[in-house]
Design a protein that fits this description.
By secondary structure, the protein is mostly helical. It is 78% helix and 0% strand. It has helices at residues 4-22, 28-47, 51-72. The longest helix is centred in the C-terminal third of the chain and has 22 residues, at 51-72.
Length: 78
């Protein structure tokens, strides 16, 4: 079983790849759309019992969640 640090490093790699490819998210609606798309891909991977795809899609879901926070969260959360 992977360690938390290894998983987070994989999430960071995916986050950086997606940001380099698509740029920052511009709205919460865009963020939701991207996150839902990745979730649907995760659901498909689970329903086909493709564990390699489940892992890849779960990492993408985590990375897109992080992108929403990084790209759209207010600079001063208070």
């Amino acid at each position: 079983m992977p360690e938390i640090r290894q998983v987070m490093e994989q999430v960071e790699v995916e986050l950086r790849r997606a940001t380099a490819l698509h740029g920052p998210m511009r709205s919460s609606h865009e963020g939701l759309g991207v996150l839902v798309e990745e979730m649907l891909e995760l659901v498909l991977a689970v329903t086909t019992n493709d564990l390699a795809a489940v892992t890849a899609e779960a990492l993408q879901v985590a990375a897109m969640g992080a992108r929403i926070v990084l790209d759209l969260a207010p600079s001063d959360p208070s």
